[in-house]
Specification:
159 residues; alpha/beta; globular
Amino acid sequence: MLVLDASSALYAWDNYPINQFPSLWAWLGRQAATGDLTTAEVAFNEIDHKAHDCALWLKAQNVTVHPITQALLLDALSFKHLLGIQGELYGNGVGENDLLIVATARAKNADLLTDEARQPSVPLDRRKYKIPAVCALPEVLVKTLSFVEYIKRSRVVFG
C-alpha cells in the first residue's frame, strides 16, 4: 500500500495529462480502486483545493481517504516535538498537514508517495526538514518515493 501526498498527485496531474497518458491513469485508477494507492484526508483536501478535477478523478476511482484520528494527531505531535517545532512556528520545512500525512503512512505501514524535494544535505535545524528528511529519521522510518520512482518500481509498461 502507498499513501499519496498532494505533491505527487499534483505532479502527476500536471505532467502526465490524462488525455495523453490514458493507460497510466487507467493503471493508477486500478491501484486506487484496489486500495494499493490511498491518501490521507488532509492530502485529499489539498489536492481538491489546488486541482479540483484531480480530486474528482480520485473520488471517481474510489480512492481510500484515511480520516485523521486521535492516534494520528498524537503521532504527528510527536514528530513535531522531534523536529523542535514550537507552537505554530513551523519554519521552512514540513507543515502540520505534512506531519499528518507522514503519520498516516506510518500507521498504515505504507510507503509515502511524495514529490516534495529531497534535501541533498539535511539542515542542522530540524524545523527545516522536508517530508523525505522527516521520514528518514530513525524515530519515524517511513519509506518515500517519488511519482517517477513509483512508476519505475511497478515495472508496468504503458503503451
